[in-house]
Structures
1.
Amino acid sequence: FAEKIDENANQVIMKLMGLGVMAGLNDQIEFEQAELVALEFNKEIAKEVKLDEIEIQEKDLDFEDDEKDLQTRPPVVSVMGHVDHGKTSILDAIRDTQFASGEAGGITQHIGASTVKINDKEIVFLDTPGHEAFTQMRMRGAQSTDIAILVVAGDDGVMPQTIEAINHAKAAEIPIIVAINKMDKEESDPNRVKQELTEYGLVSEDWGGDTIMVEVSARTGDGIKDLLEMVLLVAEMRELKANPNRAAVGIIIEAQLDKARGSVATVLVQKGTLHDKDYVVTGSSSGRIRAMFNSKGEPISEAGPSMPAQILGLSDVAEAGDKIFAVEDEKTARAYADRAKEQKREERLIQKSNTNLEDMYEGI
Ligand code: GTP
Ligand code: MG
């Protein structure tokens, strides 16, 4: 101990005697005694945590729930489609907000989560960008949701990102509800849209297929109520359930570094309930939740299954698409994060040595 705090061993023994502890050079002392002695030398000590002794893996945190613990949860719906086809406008019509007109260049550049209550039933929406640059975000949008609303402008028809969105939804194995938008426009032709969609395996119910298609106008609000009813119907058929009474598991929807607030992350809770002050870990970032907000920016103390929450308190910027887990204590969080960091480092090293090999071969 004397060596560790860089003090003379005799001095340490003297201090211990002062505390009424008779100890020789090779005797064990208690941590609390060592702490007091260190203080006498104006030093602070902390218990060494052996992180590698904590064996914690994803499967321990993301375990399966018992059927009897499952309860109905709200549907999470991603709104997808080609740029400018009216995704944000449809959400504005649903929420009675005006987000679309406030966006830079009229383009959505992030995934926004919002919660809406319809006939006492909650629906969580993820707005996704339609611009071709945001493929990753659309893919994550589809992967973290239960249902996709595919927005197709009636005056423009099926476009490249319409097709991309169909593919993401198919890959994620979630049902697609088509919203044929801009029906207030003279040029809009829903039959043309339906015709084009058949090429991608989406055949409207009135054409003998099994895809729900609703004609809407975000501008006038026509059809929006029908669209919501269809969402609730499809959600009910899916019997979406989760156990709210367990440590939370979620997915990072978005993350950034905020000048004033530090690392900020939007989490979509998938299982369990996330609480303010929970210890959490995501990838190589960990921490204790310092504050939590709902999709309206209001402070909240907990978020249950399907609910989006913005959280503050992570050590680093989280990575969108990563899972996030609530854990018992700080030690567990740090052990998990440290292991993830170590894994990342190893992956980088392997990558580097592969590149070196390639260089070598190129030289031959
Ligand atoms: P990205 O997020 O950039 O992919 O676009 P978006 O799909 O969210 O489209 P947004 O809601 O921003 O709408 C694009 C433009 O279409 C805006 O100028 C809207 O006012 C207009 N728009 C949206 N819905 C309707 C509609 O039902 N009728 C008419 N006439 N215009 C609409
Ligand atoms: Mg948008």
2.
Amino acid sequence: MTVHIGAEKGQIAETVLMPGDPRRAQWAAETFLKDAELVNEVRGMLAYTGTWNGHRVTIHGSGMGMPSLSIYANELITQYGAKTLIRIGSCGAMQSHVKIRDVIIAMTATSISTPSRGIFREINFAPCADWSLLRAAVETAEAKGIAPHVGGIYSSDVFYDERPDLSDIMTRHGILGVEMEAAELYNLAARHGVRGLAVLTVSDHLQTKEALPADERERSFGEMVEIALGAAFA
Ligand code: HPA
């Protein structure tokens, strides 16, 4: 057990999928894993370990925002030996050619700040995805008939942003979408020498103000789980 994870050593797989929402972790485990077992429920942050095509996998909620993800990813890596961590989540589109339901695979993640700011200080570290995972995720998506957008995203500290000029700057620099976790996952993966990736579905559009209807969120979430699993074990 760690401060925030109730699992015993050995109950967490080397491959961990991390949705923001713990209930999504439960849904994904029940839908995609065989013999899924609940391994954490401290603070309601559900995690399940089971197998997919014979491979052991843990699906562990990250919570919303980089400070929350940082707690779980740190403990999963340093206390439980996680080696591959893939965020599966939603994002807001920042480009007109990126549409609702599209899949974005984040090559890199820009931020204003992250929980690693105190370590990097004057350094503008460039958090980037693991190449082998990124390539395998693109190939897995394409094999399923999905053409993902691959490029930079913005990991914001706020959902309710009072600075529309920031979104504008991101859009003008080709940033595909905004979410709140990936940059710190990539920082931690780099620091600990493990593999990190974020696979995202566009749930809302910052320019058109469209939003994915609730009943479609499950289907698009399922596609991300399949892309992440395919990439992890390619
Ligand atoms: N902003 C930040 N995070 C998000 C958004 C957004 O518009 N949509 C989904 N996650």
